[in-house]
Amino acid sequence: MTRTGWGYDSHRFIKGRRLVLGGVLVPFEKGLKGHSDADVLLHAVIDAVLGACALGDIGTLFPDTDPRFKDVSSLFLLREAVRLVSKRFSIRHIDVTLLAEAPRLGPYRQRIRAKVARAAGLPVEDVSVKAKTNEGMGFVGRREGLAAAAVATVEDRPRRR
Ligand code: MG
What domains can be seen in the chain, in order of their start residue? Predict the structure, then answer.
């Protein structure tokens, strides 16, 4: 059976932190606040993957009260989530959209695709990374932070007898 999961995340900008999006360091005047590296794009992807498999969410799997996940790379969290779901499911496709007035993702898009694909064990052709502005509206429009939404498609692995 084919199953689809949806993931969403948002993080607030803060000064004095590096901005990491899709596992790629993006030069910018601010970073995102969070317990891990606050990679909002990867957090949406992780929740989409977990959601497709009905295996909970990023907050229950990697609680922000756990010192092991302090400042951790979200690529590590994605690989852990993929390892968990791969026991029963095969990931087929990921599509993620970043909502940001700035920075522009264009120059980093292909590198992000490659990072997500590698962590998810997918060919790069099966990973889509997009970005849009929020047309100046809401918290993204006011440049208070960033948001991301993702879908993931998975298939059941045939059960062994
Ligand atoms: Mg998050």
Answer: 2-156 (3.30.1330.50)
